[in-house]
Inverse folding.
């Protein structure tokens, strides 16, 4: 299989982490310079990364579809529970984590604009959304060892990806002191080889 994606794209990293956890070999193909977050419409009509290209040439997108497909093709280290309330809980965590990723990226991109053209209201709006997501995660995590209970699931990998992206894009946002349970979860996850081998890189 081939994964098309950027080293700075959080959705690509989530897919790479899942592939590593499932111990599935793949080829990573990076888009050409200057087009780091886009892919040919031949692979994805929306132009978004990541895209997983199967051995027969079939492209699979987007990240949520990719990670579920990966989990289904390999029985080891199952990351999704069976179709029941527990599975819905994992998907709910993933939805919040993905929403956090979007807010981080929007805040980061707007902050990168020159001060004169920067939309401060948009940055504040996205930062507020980030804080709401973190508060939700902290409260729902509680004293559990993992997001969805006693075992590692896709919920943890999605949340871990989002927290790493927060540190990557908005390093000055102080959240670990006010969200100690999330900080502890992030510290545990970053010790996993799947996280260490897929670190974000600016391109």
């Amino acid at each position: 299989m081939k994964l098309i994606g950027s080293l700075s794209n959080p959705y690509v990293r989530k897919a790479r982490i899942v592939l590593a956890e499932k111990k599935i070999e793949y080829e990573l193909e990076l888009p050409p310079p200057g087009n780091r977050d886009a892919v040919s419409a031949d692979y994805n009509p929306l132009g978004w990364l990541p895209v997983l290209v199967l051995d027969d040439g079939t492209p699979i997108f987007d990240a949520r579809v990719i990670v579920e497909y990966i989990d289904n093709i390999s029985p080891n280290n199952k990351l999704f529970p069976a179709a029941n309330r527990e599975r819905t809980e994992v998907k709910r965590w993933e939805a919040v984590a993905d929403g956090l990723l979007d807010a981080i990226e929007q805040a980061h991109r707007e902050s990168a604009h020159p001060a004169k053209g920067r939309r401060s209201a948009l940055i504040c709006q996205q930062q507020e959304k980030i804080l709401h997501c973190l508060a939700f995660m902290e409260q729902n995590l509680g004293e559990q060892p993992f997001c969805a209970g006693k075992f590692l699931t896709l919920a943890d990998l999605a949340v871990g990806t989002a927290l790493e992206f927060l540190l990557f894009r908005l390093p000055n946002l102080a959240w670990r002191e006010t969200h100690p349970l999330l900080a502890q979860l992030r510290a545990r996850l970053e010790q996993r080889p799947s996280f260490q081998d897929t670190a974000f890189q600016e391109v």
In short: The domain at 85-192 is CATH 1.20.1050.10 (Glutathione S-transferase Yfyf (Class Pi); Chain A, domain 2). Helices lie at 10-21, 63-73, 85-111, 120-141, 154-169, 180-189, 193-196. Residues 85-111 form the longest helix (27 residues).
